C-alpha cells in the first residue's frame, strides 16, 4: 500500500502527556452515527464517530499497545489502574515488548530495554509484504542510543508495525535488523508480553476435577501435553498434563471460599503450535492467538501475594488478567550483520458459547 492510500496517523497526548497513536477501523458499513471530540496533535477537533468503531492505542513510550477495543467498545486488553506512565517504569498492562532480553534470562535489566525507550514513528519504512487490506496501521522504529550501546553494544533497527484489521484483529509485526558495521553478530530473546482482560480467573476452580475441566471460567487450549520451563522452580523442565490449562490449586484446610489458595503461574511453554486459544466462559469470548517466528509461549498470572508486592498493580487485579506471551526464549535468535528477523502475533476475539461442552476448542484451534 502506498503512503498516499494510508489513513493519516492520529497522534495525540496520553497519560502524563506521553505521545500516543490512535488507530481506528470501522466494521461493516461506514454509517455515520454521531460526532466525537479527538485530539489530532495538540488540537481538539470534532470527527465523525461510528457505532461500529474498532480502536487501538499505541504509546511511543515502549512502542506499547495499551488498548484494543472491539466494535461494542469493550476493552480486550488489561491495563492496571496503578500503571505508571512514566520512564523508566514500563507500562503495566497492554502489550509490552520484551527485547533484547526476555525476563532475567541474561545480564540486562528484566525484559530488556525496548519497553522503556521512546520509539519514533517510521515515516518511510521499507516495503512491507502484507495480505491485509487494512489502512489502520502505524510503523514505529527503535534504534539504540549511545547509552543503550554501552549496556548492549550492538547496532540494530527494530521496526514494529501495529495493524488493526477491518474484522477487529490486532496484528503486531516486528522486524529486527543487525546494522553492525564491524561484522559482529548479536543474539537476543524476545516476547510480546500481552495482558488479556478476562472474567474472574478464580471461578470454577474448587469443585473437584470434573467441574474444573468442564466449567473453569478461563482456560487455555493449545499448550496441553507440551514441555515447559517453570520460572517458579528455577526454570526446571516439566511436561504439562491434562486437557487444558486451568487455574486451579489445592484448597487448604479451612479455605471455605471456593477459590484456590494460589494459582501463581509463570511457565515458558516450548515449541508451541502457531495457534493458541484463551476461552472465557463468562464473557462468552475466545481469544485466538496466531503467531509466526515465535516458538514459545509464556503464561503468567501473579495471583494475590505477588500482586500485593507489585507497586504498579492493584491487589485484586490478578483476578481479571492473564498474560499469554508469544516468545522466542528457549532458543535465542542470532543475527549476522545485515540479517533481519521477523516475529508476528495476530490477536482475534471471537464470540463463543462455551456452555456444557458445546464449544469444541479443537475446532477453534483448527479453523484458519
Ligand atoms: O514485572 P515485570 O518485569 O513486568 O515482569 C512480569 C513477568 O513477566 C513474565 O511473565 C515473566 O515470565 C515473569 O517472571 C515476570 O514476573
Automatic annotation (TrEMBL):
GO-annotated biological processes: carbohydrate metabolic process
Entry annotated with the keyword Zinc: no
Assigned GO CC terms: cytoplasm
EC class name: isomerase
Pfam families with a match to the protein in the record: Aldose_epim (PF01263)
This protein's UniProt keywords: Isomerase
GO molecular function: carbohydrate binding; glucose-6-phosphate 1-epimerase activity
Catalytic activity: alpha-D-glucose 6-phosphate = beta-D-glucose 6-phosphate
EC number: 5.1.3.15
Keyword presence, Isomerase: yes
Family: Belongs to the glucose-6-phosphate 1-epimerase family.
Protein name per the record: glucose-6-phosphate 1-epimerase
Annotated source species: Camellia sinensis (Tea plant)
Taxonomic classification: Eukaryota, Viridiplantae, Streptophyta, Embryophyta, Tracheophyta
Amino acid at each position: 500500500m502506498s503512503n498516499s492510500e494510508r489513513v493519516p496517523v492520529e497522534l495525540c497526548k496520553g497519560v502524563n502527556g506521553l505521545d500516543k497513536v490512535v488507530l481506528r477501523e470501522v466494521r461493516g458499513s461506514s454509517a455515520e452515527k454521531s460526532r466525537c471530540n479527538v485530539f489530532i496533535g495538540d488540537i481538539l477537533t470534532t470527527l465523525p464517530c461510528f457505532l461500529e468503531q474498532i480502536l487501538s492505542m499505541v504509546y511511543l513510550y515502549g512502542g506499547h499497545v495499551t488498548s484494543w477495543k472491539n466494535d461494542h467498545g469493550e476493552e480486550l486488553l488489561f491495563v492496571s489502574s496503578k500503571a505508571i506512565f512514566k520512564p523508566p517504569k514500563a507500562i503495566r498492562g497492554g502489550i509490552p515488548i520484551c527485547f533484547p532480553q526476555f525476563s532475567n534470562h541474561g545480564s540486562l535489566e528484566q525484559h530488556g530495554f525496548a519497553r522503556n525507550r521512546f520509539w519514533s514513528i517510521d515515516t518511510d519504512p521499507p516495503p512491507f509484504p502484507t495480505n491485509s487490506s487494512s489502512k489502520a496501521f502505524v510503523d514505529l522504529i527503535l534504534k539504540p542510543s549511545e547509552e543503550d550501546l554501552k549496556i548492549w553494544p550492538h547496532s540494530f533497527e527494530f521496526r514494529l508495525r501495529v495493524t488493526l484489521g477491518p474484522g477487529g484483529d490486532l496484528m503486531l509485526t516486528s522486524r529486527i535488523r543487525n546494522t553492525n558495521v564491524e561484522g559482529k553478530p548479536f543474539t537476543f530473546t524476545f516476547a510480546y508480553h500481552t495482558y488479556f482482560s478476562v472474567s474472574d480467573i478464580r471461578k470454577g476452580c474448587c469443585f473437584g476435577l470434573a467441574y474444573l475441566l468442564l466449567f473453569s471460567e478461563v482456560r487455555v487450549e493449545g499448550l496441553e501435553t507440551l514441555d515447559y520451563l517453570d520460572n517458579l522452580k528455577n526454570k526446571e523442565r516439566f511436561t504439562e498434563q491434562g486437557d487444558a490449562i486451568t487455574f486451579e490449586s489445592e484448597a487448604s484446610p479451612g479455605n471455605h471460599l471456593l477459590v484456590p489458595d494460589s494459582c501463581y503461574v509463570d511457565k515458558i511453554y516450548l515449541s508451541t503450535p502457531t495457534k493458541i486459544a484463551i476461552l472465557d466462559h463468562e464473557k462468552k469470548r475466545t481469544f485466538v492467538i496466531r503467531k509466526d517466528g515465535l516458538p514459545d509461549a509464556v503464561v503468567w498470572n501473579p495471583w494475590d501475594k505477588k500482586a500485593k508486592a507489585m507497586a504498579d498493580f492493584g491487589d485484586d487485579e490478578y483476578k481479571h488478567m492473564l498474560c499469554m506471551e508469544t516468545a522466542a526464549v528457549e532458543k535465542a535468535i542470532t543475527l549476522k550483520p545485515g540479517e533481519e528477523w521477523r516475529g508476528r502475533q495476530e490477536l482475534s476475539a471471537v464470540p463463543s458459547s462455551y456452555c456444557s461442552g458445546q464449544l469444541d476448542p479443537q475446532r477453534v484451534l483448527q479453523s484458519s
